[in-house]
Design brief:
The protein is α/β, with parallel strands linked by helices and 170 residues long. The chain is 44% helix and 25% strand. It has 6 helices and 7 strands, in the order αβααβαββββαβα. Strands 6-5-4-1-2-3-7 form a 7-stranded mixed sheet, sandwiched between helices. The longest helix is centred in the first third of the chain and has 19 residues. It is globular.
């Protein structure tokens, strides 16, 4: 598989993402529009709808898509926006969980973003210090795959559902 799309087309059971960054550069324009009280552009809405449709197709085929967003409270305006916008993804069937480093010190060591597909394939995601996406890399090394599985499982164990998090942080 040469690109990320291949992973999403071919996973059979589950696709899980671990998000550890405090800011993701690809969101910058949409977040700025939000702060300025503006709606997302038509292209931003199209991209969001593309993801929601992908989630709905996967879940209707009994496949799971989920993510754990690792945060450190109190939430920055950006992270609050990310959490709030996750509602549309959750409504489509994505299992979104929030893990707070302030409540679980073991999470502080998690600093790599990745996708795990079917608990067998890992796609590492690299970002620069400002949150700009640099590249993704498929990993075949079993030790790295096992590490990612442990980190994902820790994050899940230390997390709460998106709705539970929103109820507590309001």
């Amino acid at each position: 598989m040469s690109n990320t799309g291949d992973f999403f087309e071919q996973f059979k059971r589950s696709a899980w993402r671990l998000e550890t960054r405090p800011f993701y550069g690809p969101d910058a324009d949409e977040f700025q529009r939000y702060q300025d009280g503006q709606s997302p552009t038509a292209e931003q809405q199209r991209q969001r709808q593309w993801w929601i449709d992908r989630i709905a197709r996967a879940t209707s085929a009994a496949r799971t898509i989920g993510r754990v967003l690792v945060v450190t409270g109190p939430l920055t305006p950006y992270l609050r926006w990310r959490v709030e916008t996750g509602r549309g993804h959750a409504a489509a069937g994505e299992e979104i969980r929030i893990a707070d480093c302030a409540q679980h010190r073991a999470l502080a060591e998690l600093d790599s973003d990745f996708w795990i597909f079917d608990d067998e394939r890992v796609l590492l995601l690299e970002y620069d210090p400002q949150g700009a996406f640099l590249r993704s890399q498929q990993v075949a090394d079993r030790a790295i795959i096992e590490r990612c599985l442990r980190e994902r499982n820790l994050a899940i164990a230390c997390s709460v559902s998106l709705e539970e998090f929103l109820q507590v942080t309001r």
